[in-house]
Write a structure and sequence with these properties.
Structural class: alpha+beta
Distance between the termini: 60 Å
Number of helices: 21
Shape: globular
Length: 481
């Protein structure tokens, strides 16, 4: 594993001073002076560019100011003015799920959909300590060998199939679907951009994590940034709240029965929706232009006829293009879904960070997702045999190192996920994930979410679809009488 500081924001004038050799002695480049200057804006009448000059002139004083304002006074948002770019290499796909679970950061990850993989994977410390490293590596190597067999079987598809799909499509399908047999121990890499406040939280949460790999990531991340911004990243030790709360909840609730079904007839369920969601959004739109209290607007909307409500909603959306987001009033209605998704699907779902996504552990009893392409090329039997073998090894690992057992599971294995989002965010999910270019697994999930949501909020979601179909849907909706 490597965690490398790739860059950070610094004052532009500091750059010029470094270029000309006029920087004050002992003042190395740091984003802390920008944070310190911005922290003083609220109480210092000087122009902000002068505040930056003052902070550059005495970095240690700027750091003392940061510590006082951020940690003693509790104005944590000041730390958000310091932004870091981080290279992260040699981490498992399982660890990536932790890293990308923080909302206020940006990530670009190596995609298993577009790159042929060479079989690199992480051997967790817990597996080695349990004396199971040989069994683990043997199983992962077998999964990787099958990956290459599946890849080749799909690449050979044009010779055996009459669909006439172009070679580029076949190659894309091969890489996209063969990866379902790869383990969550498979190595990945990503670039991350995050502010100091988020980095501190990430380091602290990593310190409390049950996986040694994640704890090691947290230590390396701290090592990468602490010398550059010592005044903004301070509280990095694990807290009892982060470390002990899950176990305490489990003990308090006891061992509740939890029957699982491998073949769920509907893997996506709408658990809750804002009552009268359409009316709430329409009332919010009315409040925007009328300035009247929302409660009064809601009463007025309820008195409208269905046709009048539809006309009002169409007016709000008629000028929207595929690249536009709905008005913010669409955030006033919420939806809560429970979904059973593969690891491959979850890898994409977790990127929608404005939603609330709460995932349970991977559970082999929920079955595994087998791509249709794998079935069509006659490789379903070896695929399922590999899944059964994986499940057997998972159980052996779980007996000795339960927290690390998930590493052996594959992209095909499933977990339960709770997803809460507002209607505006669901539009974003629909535009991106229902599009014909989207990966088929999450496309099916997104489509079902929109179908269920449209059942309870037909007006608010009348324009929800993939961006490729937006113009046609918009035209059809607006022409409807």
């Amino acid at each position: 594993m490597d965690v490398i500081l790739a860059g950070f924001n610094i004052d532009r004038e500091a750059l010029r001073e470094l270029e000309t050799g006029s920087a004050p002695a002992g003042s190395g480049p740091t984003p802390e002076t920008v944070s310190a200057a911005y922290a003083r804006i609220s109480r210092n009448p000087r122009p902000v560019n002068e505040l930056r000059r003052i902070a550059r002139g005495d970095v240690e004083k700027a750091r003392r100011s940061n510590r006082n304002i951020v940690f003693d006074m509790g104005h944590n948002s000041i730390a958000e003015h310091a932004v870091f770019n981080i290279d992260i290499l040699g981490v498992s796909r399982l660890a990536v799920e932790f890293i990308e679970g923080f909302r206020l950061a940006s990530y670009t990850e190596k995609s298993q959909r577009y790159i042929r993989l060479d079989g690199d994977f992480v051997v967790p410390a817990e597996i080695g300590d349990a004396g199971l490293a040989d069994l683990f590596m043997e199983t992962v190597n077998a999964q990787n060998a099958l990956y290459h067999e599946l890849l080749q079987a799909v690449l050979d598809l044009p010779a055996n199939d009459s669909t006439g799909d172009p070679p580029s499509f076949i190659e894309s399908a091969a890489k996209e679907d063969a990866r379902y047999i790869l383990s969550l121990a498979t190595e990945s890499q990503l670039g991350m951009t995050a502010n100091a406040r988020t980095l501190e939280l990430m380091i602290r949460r990593a310190a409390a994590h049950p996986l040694a790999e994640v704890r090691e990531f947290g230590r390396r991340l701290y090592d990468a940034v602490r010398e550059v911004a010592p005044s903004l990243i301070k509280y990095t030790d694990a807290t009892a709240f982060d470390r002990d709360t899950p176990a305490a909840l489990k003990e308090a609730l006891g061992k509740l029965p939890d029957p699982e079904q491998a073949d769920d007839p509907d893997p996506v369920v709408l658990v809750h929706a804002t009552p009268e969601g359409d009316d709430m959004i329409l009332a919010s739109l009315m409040q925007r232009v009328s300035g009247r209290p929302l409660a009064n607007c809601l009463d007025d909307i309820r008195r409208l006829s269905p046709a009048e409500k539809e006309t009002l909603m169409k007016t709000a959306c008629a000028r929207m293009e595929s690249y536009d987001t709905p008005l913010r009033e669409f955030e006033t209605a919420d939806l809560v879904f429970e979904a059973v998704v593969s690891a491959s699907c979850f890898a994409q779902m977790k990127r929608h960070r404005m939603a609330t996504i709460i995932s349970r552990d991977y559970d082999p009893s929920l079955g595994a997702t087998v791509p249709k392409t794998i079935i069509n090329v006659g490789m379903e039997k070896p695929f399922r045999a590999a899944i059964r073998r994986t499940n057997d090894v998972y159980e052996r690992i779980r007996e000795i190192a339960p927290r690390a057992a998930a590493y052996i599971l594959t992209n095909a294995h499933r977990r339960r996920v709770l997803v809460k989002m507002n209607v505006r965010e669901l539009y974003h999910v629909s535009r991106l994930r229902e599009d014909r270019h989207a990966q088929w697994d999450i496309r099916h999930t997104a489509r079902r979410m929109v179908e269920l949501a449209r059942n309870v909020m037909p007006l608010s979601l009348m324009f929800a679809c993939g961006k490729d179909a937006f113009q046609e849907m918009k035209r059809n909706r607006l022409e409807e009488k």
